[in-house]
């Protein structure tokens, strides 16, 4: 990995936004289980929402404010924020100039692999100082269009896992690895075709676990419930289609939602924007990369 970039070098890569109100989003290059995004916001806020990935980003300009676990937080230029899967948050500018940031979304399953199957770390205080995060992780945000190969993907996962454990609010003790293989079979069954609503009996059959064990351990392993995981994979599919010009109603149907209104409600709860406003905010050459295992935004 490269040496730590300065804040100015990161700022120069932000999308041009000027003083015009609205959101501007640009997806960079990612890998399976990893998405990178740059964003700027002036005058408007992200509605409360949640996603099923870790979101680890750095504020580059302005003041980013967000409500998280019942408290209003402020993230200044150079500071990082770490959001746990399935934790509701919003996002707004603390000043009239708006704010800009770059962020990495990483699949909890990839974090699990980097941790050797240990339970996911939980970072209770989401704002982290500039010097308390690894410089190599900041380097991952300098050129988000640079491709991530297999080696880089593993390096990013290890950097994230180490940072999460370092700032985890859990007691420092050795935790036994989880039995991931049967849970992964449930996860893969859902991800292979998220438009299909599987029964709990199918989960039991594919995993060899009873339904209560599946419900308890799935969240411990992957940071969200099986139902929520399926919804996120449906939204992955919908985002890709919308970015490619598929009409809202067709995207909703193909992704397995009851109708367009249902997809719109789920979309806003997840990304803080309606599908129409999300599409209007997209800039640049990259559309959202969607693998069979990931989710995100903001």
Automatic annotation (TrEMBL):
The keyword Transcription applies. It comes from the Bacteria. PROSITE patterns: HTH_ARAC_FAMILY_2. SUPFAM superfamilies: Homeodomain-like, Regulatory protein AraC. Residues 184-281 form the HTH araC/xylS-type domain. PANTHER family: HTH-TYPE TRANSCRIPTIONAL ACTIVATOR RHAS-RELATED, TRANSCRIPTIONAL REGULATORY PROTEIN. This is AraC family transcriptional regulator. It comes from Streptosporangium fragile.
């Amino acid at each position: 990995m490269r040496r730590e970039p300065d804040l100015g070098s990161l700022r120069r890569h932000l999308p041009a936004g000027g003083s015009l109100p609205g959101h501007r989003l640009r997806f960079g290059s990612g890998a399976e289980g990893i998405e990178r995004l740059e964003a700027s916001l002036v005058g408007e806020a992200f509605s409360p929402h949640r996603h099923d990935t870790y979101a680890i980003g750095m504020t580059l300009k302005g003041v980013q404010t967000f409500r998280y676990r019942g408290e209003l937080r402020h993230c200044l230029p150079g500071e990082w924020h770490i959001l746990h899967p399935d934790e509701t948050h919003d996002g707004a500018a603390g000043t009239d100039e708006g704010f800009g940031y770059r962020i990495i979304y990483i699949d909890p399953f990839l974090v699990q692999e980097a941790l050797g199957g240990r339970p996911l770390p939980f970072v209770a205080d989401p704002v982290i100082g500039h010097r308390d995060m690894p410089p190599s992780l900041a380097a991952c945000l300098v050129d988000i269009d640079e491709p991530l190969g297999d080696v880089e993907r593993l390096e990013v996962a290890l950097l994230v896992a180490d940072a999460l454990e370092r700032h985890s609010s859990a007691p420092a003790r050795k935790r036994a690895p989880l039995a991931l293989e049967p849970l992964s079979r449930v996860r893969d069954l859902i991800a292979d075709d998220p438009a299909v609503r599987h029964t709990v009996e199918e989960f039991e059959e594919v995993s060899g676990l009873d339904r209560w064990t599946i419900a308890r351990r799935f969240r411990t392993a992957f940071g969200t419930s099986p139902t929520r995981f399926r919804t996120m994979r449906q939204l992955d599919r919908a985002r890709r289609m919308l970015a490619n010009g598929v009409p809202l109603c067709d995207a909703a149907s193909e992704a397995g939602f009851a109708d367009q209104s249902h997809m719109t409600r789920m979309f806003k709860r997840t990304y803080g924007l309606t599908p129409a406003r999300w599409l209007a905010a997209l800039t640049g050459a990259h559309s959202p990369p969607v693998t069979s295992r990931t989710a995100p935004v903001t």
